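User: Please fill in residues for this 357-position structure.
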């Protein structure tokens, strides 16, 4: 079995080829185009494995070469610390290290989603980018109001200046020419972003989703409506079977604390950094809705809030909700609030003592 290590860049790619005993056979540095890449891989005889570190454009290389190799290994960039901490770091060493790790079975692998899921993920992340931009524009307008209008002079018939009445009020405000210009431009941008966000949402609704778990996720509080969060969560998770247990999903979603424990000393800190931040955002937003929809989650939230405050309570409830989602998707069974309790108990399992939320 031949093992090929790849260091993939925008213009060129470096290849290191090892035989079945781990001995270096050849090294190449080639320009990036589909024909050159495929010709080189086809020239290597016998069954072959290929390993590369995940980069922003790894999908292009994967789709070009997946039919030419027997096994494609995608290295997890944050776990491949040896690549970033090496004293002598260059393309040849990086390609060789990927090959050696794959050959010995120590390559920390990242999940390879299907092309369809990757494309949908790009769409929902574009929507997330626009939502963040819209939030920034709203904050800009709020700041402008704070520096021009006293709270006592604002209408009492609404609180949100971005509702229908609020937008009409903003249009009628008498301000200096400069401040009026800023407000008009900000409102124009706000309406444009709204239209683009609606367009993306409509595009997603028109797609033929291959998401069989969606009907089960729709039974979970926080995901019962026809909003975008259910699509986002399933697309970011991609395949629930890649997580061996609920803790794996909790870590991936970034809702568990970092831990530095040794012996009898246990230290826990802030939430883990190596997480899918898009999934964490969706999960926390849905937790806020789930608290209003499910009285058991609401009771759990209140019990934690009384001890540790609202911030910690939201995260703790998000953990419980995330674990519930794991078992709903894993077992493909509807959510059942009667199997949840304010204390940490089992959820969606035939063995409630072993599986806990």
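Assistant: Residues filled in for all 357 positions:
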């Amino acid at each position: 079995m031949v093992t090929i290590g790849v260091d993939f860049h925008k213009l060129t790619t470096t290849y290191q080829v090892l035989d079945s005993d781990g001995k270096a056979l050849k090294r190449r540095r080639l320009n990036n185009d589909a024909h050159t890449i495929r010709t080189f891989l086809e020239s290597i005889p016998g069954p072959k494995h290929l390993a590369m570190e995940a980069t922003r454009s790894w999908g292009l290389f994967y789709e070009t070469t997946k039919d030419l190799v027997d096994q494609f290994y995608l290295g997890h960039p944050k776990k491949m610390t040896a690549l970033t901490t090496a004293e002598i770091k260059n393309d040849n060493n990086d390609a060789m290290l990927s090959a050696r790790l794959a050959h010995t079975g120590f390559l920390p692998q990242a999940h390879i989603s299907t092309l369809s899921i990757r494309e949908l993920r790009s769409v929902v992340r574009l929507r997330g980018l626009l939502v963040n931009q819209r939030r920034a524009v709203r904050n800009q307008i709020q700041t402008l109001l704070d520096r021009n209008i006293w709270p006592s002079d604002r209408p009492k018939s609404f609180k949100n200046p971005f509702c229908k009445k609020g937008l009409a009020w903003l249009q009628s405000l008498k301000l200096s020419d400069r401040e009026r210009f800023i407000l008009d431009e900000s409102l124009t941008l706000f309406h444009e972003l709204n239209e683009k966000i609606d367009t993306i949402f409509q595009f997603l609704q028109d797609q033929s989703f291959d998401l069989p778990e969606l009907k089960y996720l729709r039974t979970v509080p926080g995901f019962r409506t026809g909003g975008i969060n259910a699509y986002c969560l399933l697309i970011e998770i991609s395949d629930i079977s890649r997580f061996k247990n609920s803790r794996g999903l909790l870590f991936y979603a970034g809702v568990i604390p970092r831990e530095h424990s040794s012996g009898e000393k246990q230290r826990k800190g802030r939430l883990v950094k190596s997480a899918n931040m898009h999934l964490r955002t969706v999960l926390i937003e849905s937790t806020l809705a789930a608290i209003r929809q499910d009285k058991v989650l609401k009771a759990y939230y209140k019990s934690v809030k009384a001890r540790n405050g609202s911030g910690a309570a939201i995260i703790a409830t998000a953990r419980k909700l995330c674990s519930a989602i794991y078992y709903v998707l894993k077992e493909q069974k509807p959510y059942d609030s009667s199997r949840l309790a304010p204390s940490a108990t089992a959820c969606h399992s035939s063995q409630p003592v072993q599986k806990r939320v």
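For context: The chain has a mean pLDDT of 89.
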